[in-house]
Amino acid sequence: MSEETSNSSTGMGSSDSTAAKPLKAGPSRGLLIGGLVAIVVIAGVVVSTNSSDAPRSGTTTCATTSAGCEIGDIGPGGGKVFSLGGKAAPATCTGTCLEVAPLGWQNTFATATSTDLNSNWSTAKSTAATYAAGTAAAGQWRLPTVDELKTLANLSATEQANVNGFRDATSAYWTATEAGSGAYLCSDRNPNFGAKSKTTSYYSRPIHPF
User: Is the pTM of this model over 0.70?
Assistant: First the structure.
């Protein structure tokens, strides 16, 4: 509009007005470019929020202050918070919250089909104790008790996906709870899996209280 007003004030003829028409296409090109940028930005957000290893809200507040924790947040050891110790979210953790180690905790090059240690109970226990990440040093991580692993198993499907709890729904995981010459296991579908021989190989995932 301002272009045409300027042209008429300088006495330009109709041919000049016609020549100025391509300028009107400028905003359309701008909208097209802006639209493409918007699509790229939106696509980036979708990819980020759909990542199974992303924290609940994209914040690391829980990891840095242990305050305002919710299920799925990143804990101080770089794992995922799966228990608030019975507190209502958001909770301030004072040794009552639990985080579970991330996928591939024993092997940074682990694949989607081999993300957890598969070993006998003794190896699982010692390997968990040597794991260290974030502000949680070696010796602060351990195998979960049977009740702690039941808490993880009893999360809703959405929450368990957010914390990357189990390798799959049928795999059994070692706990630190012993039963004579055996130790208890749990799985997503069977939180009361029962005791098995310590010499048999099962999966394991360490946890960290904070």
Answer: no
Report the C-alpha gap between 161 and 55 in whole angstroms: 11
For the chain, the straight-line distance linking the first and the last C-alpha, in angstroms and rounded, comes to 64
DSSP 72-109: T-B-TTSSEEEE-TTPPSSB--SS--EEEPPTTTT-TT
Rounded to whole angstroms, the Cα distance separating 35 from 67 reads: 39
Contacts of 108 (CB under 8 A, 6+ apart): none
- With contact defined as beta carbons under 8 Å apart, do 76 and 66 qualify? yes
| Residues 198-207: tens digit of each pLDDT | 999 998 999 9
In the CATH hierarchy, which top-level class contains the domain 97-209? alpha beta
Nearest to 171 by CA among 134, 116, 111, 129: 116
Residue boundaries of the structural domains of the chain: 2-50, 97-209
pLDDT tens figures, 28-86: 444 433 443 333 222 332 222 223 344 444 455 687 777 788 898 888 888 899 999 99
User: Per this entry, what is the length of the chain?
Assistant: 210
